[in-house]
Amino acid sequence: MLSSPLRHYAENLFAGVRETAPPGSWQRGLLSRYALRMISLREQVCTPEAVVAVGRDHEDVTIEDTVRSAMEPSRLLVEHLATTHARVYGVTTGFGALATTVIPEEERLELQRSIIRSHAAGVGQPVPSEIVRSMMFLRARSLAAGYSGVRFELVEAYVRALSVDCVPWVPEHGSLGASGDLAPLAHIALALAGEGIFLGKDGEQRSAGDVLHEHGIPPIAVDLKEGLALINGTDGMTALMSFVIVDLENLLDFADAVAALSVEALLGTDSTYREAVVGLRPSAGQHRSAAVIRSMLEGSSIVASHRDSDHVVQDPYSLRCTPQIHGAARDVAAAARGFVERELASVVDNPVVFSAEGELANTGNFHGQGLSYAADMCALVLADMAALAERRVNRMLDPVRSNGLPAFLTPHPGTNSGFMIAQYTAAACVSALRAGASPLSVHSLDTSAEQEDHVSMGWEAALRTYRSLATLRQVLAIEALCAAQAVRLRKPLAPGRGTGALLEELSAAVPHMMKDRFLAPDIDRIADYISSRSWQALIPALQGDAS
User: Fold this and answer.
1) Statement to judge: residues 147 and 203 lie in one domain
2) Distance, first Cα to last Cα, the chain
3) Per-residue pLDDT tens digits for 303-318
4) Burial of 340 (0-12, 13-18, 19+ CB in 10 A)
5) Fewest beta carbons within 10 Å, which of 141, 152, 279, 415?
6) Cα-Cα-Cα-Cα dihedral sign, residues 484, 488, 493, 498
7) How many separate domains does the chain show?
8) Does 89 participate in catalysis according to the annotation?
9) Catalytic residue among 9, 34, 89, 317
């Protein structure tokens, strides 16, 4: 545990890193690896990277001793109000449209247990374990803030379950993104109460009681206000969007890098990527994309071979405007990151407990409209990034427009179809992503007898966008395959410093194709390579070598 002065120093240090470090940089990687260990569960500056570290990388979560004492005042107030005649939502009354129904004192514990059982009503395929783990972490953080009026033992239970990787079964559909992610969070709470379902290591459903017993974890016994507190928050949407932001920012870096390889493949010019040219628009995203492309192309004899040629006066937009399009995508991702970071700094329970004032206050912070807007914005970006990559692929395969490359990038067209159908696949993926980019944030429906008459649909929007990341990754893998094949066909001309290093790794994963072969495994191997992020070390601009 850190001493208080050192903890404050760490908080200031990481806050500075967060403000100045570019997405995907080694500085943000440092923040991701050490934020949870160095900053308390209750007071840390939480980032999307930290959420991903807990969910995907199984980063340890620790609880400082101060959390218990910070939670006690609000808990004492809840217990006191429960003994009075005060009408307190969710403590002495029912929920939603039943908020005016006063619950007899002898039924108030059953009220809290019933809400978890009744709200665990989701359907569909299980939510990925990495998302469920992150939701558990975020719910523990929310309770530890000391505004929920619950016992410290609930935070302990969630963190202990994370430590042994007990992952509840959470079905995909059920949340409307307002009044919190009720159904998904209820499935988690019900499992930890010993009544729900956990996921086994092979994805099978297992009885919660059996799993808890095997790990020596006692089921949580929900007390006053605690059933409501366990399910009322935006933790599901926030977890999903944390993954969206982190993965999208990394895909944007790879998209810039592979676009540079496509520029060489198509004998494009690098003049429009000059700092002076892109500097005429004050877009941080555009500057970063151009810097990545410039750094990748540095030293390219392919680009140099036609720098003074008149083979083309202007490159097509899919090459020439890449920094502008990718840069706009980066700027949108940065705006979406702002929504997520604000959510990570928020208290989203309802009602919240102000112990000093002796008050339980109703709030609307459980409404996820901002996250829903962010999810829709990112869905637009995913669709258009894939569309741009597919256009570059299509151009590389067309002998009329590829500046000398063989049809479909095969040395023996006719007998061989080369990458013809890979481009079909990319086009199909683009169509799916475009369909998935129609906004869900405007699809509110009345619920709870019109008490909840506007909902965000943020969970559905975020889940759809999270799943779309894999589709964009497949399209970028197809572009990488085609660009690598095309640049190898340009020999003896050599690629740039960065593109050459990328080409070497792509070629090690998937060799040059002299005649047709089974392409699906090749696409999957490159998609896995993109997911590994080892390519980040090959981009000079990410290492501080280029501006």
Assistant:
1) yes
2) 38
3) 999 887 666 668 999 9
4) buried
5) 415
6) positive
7) 2
8) yes
9) 89
